[in-house]
Write a structure and sequence with these properties.
Largest sheet: 7 strands, mixed
Structural class: alpha/beta
Radius of gyration: 18 Å
Strand content: 15-25%
Number of domains: 1
CATH architecture: 3-Layer(aba) Sandwich
CATH topology: Rossmann fold
Strand order of the largest sheet: 3-2-1-4-5-7-6
CATH superfamily: Vaccinia Virus protein VP39
Order of helices and strands: HHHEEHEEHEHHEE
Distance between the termini: 42 Å
CATH class: Alpha Beta
């Protein structure tokens, strides 16, 4: 398909979403999205998404206890905690520092905390992945980052901060939706949906090739798999999953 086809179909989609574009132009959409729509949507969508990704997450986080520090404790830092969808997969007794750019997730987060009381919650920081200055260097055993790198301002900046806060031998865990193969229909539709999707879903980008950022980061070991998660009618089916060691 030609570039012209993509531009035409993008315009058609933008026309359908015109009320949201208008609210954005008036400065109304972003605060509404951050405070009400996105926290509500994410909590509801997470319940559906968890059913689709439960096996993958169980497998992903299975070796978390292997990264306990010399003291025997396991200190986790989660970037973009959202509503706490990952808490159920963390080993009992681990200590979790939660971070997110959006403080409006905290109600959903409290519900997840109440369901998973074997995990110790250290604190919640309002912080972007690219700027974790409140977290000391080399102070955590593992950094968790799921469905976050699609919307950070800088993937490389976030990975750099993750490496900084990890102790030597610590691990960075990831599960992210990514760009499809460039020759596929999936990628064609990702290109069409991307601008409107990004506006509606608080900066989420459909076409990032995040595996390339991970390959170029200064990890000593990278365990990465490309998988598909069946989400009918969604442009977010291609994913990467794995962990990297500092």
């Amino acid at each position: 398909m030609t570039e012209a086809s993509i531009l035409f179909l993008r315009a058609c989609l933008a026309l359908l979403a015109m009320p949201i574009y208008l609210l954005s132009f008036l400065g109304v959409w972003e605060p509404f999205c951050k405070k009400i729509f996105f926290p509500f949507f994410l909590e509801k969508f997470s319940a559906i998404h968890e059913r689709k990704t439960k096996k993958q997450k169980q497998e992903l986080f299975r070796n978390l206890p292997d990264f306990r520090g010399p003291s025997g404790e396991l200190k986790l830092l989660e970037i973009g905690t959202g509503c706490g969808a990952n808490f159920q997969f963390y080993p009992p007794g681990c200590r979790v520092t939660c971070t997110d750019t959006n403080p409006n997730f905290q109600q959903g987060l409290l519900r997840s905390m109440n369901k998973n009381q074997l995990v110790h919650y250290e604190r919640f920081l309002v912080a972007a992945g690219e700027d974790l200055h409140q977290v000391p260097s080399g102070s955590v055993d593992a950094v968790i980052c799921t469905f976050v790198l699609c919307s950070v301002h800088s993937v490389n900046g976030t990975l750099k901060e993750a490496l900084r806060v990890l102790r030597p031998g610590g691990a960075f865990y990831f599960l992210e939706h990514v760009a499809a193969d460039h020759s596929s229909w999936k990628y064609f539709w990702q290109q069409i949906c991307c601008p409107t999707w990004k506006l509606i879903f608080d900066g989420c980008c459909l076409t990032r090739e995040i595996w390339k950022n991970l390959e170029q980061a200064n990890f000593s070991e990278l365990n990465l798999k490309h998988i598909n998660i069946e989400l009918p009618w969604m442009p977010t089916q291609p994913h990467i999953i794995g962990y990297a060691v500092k």
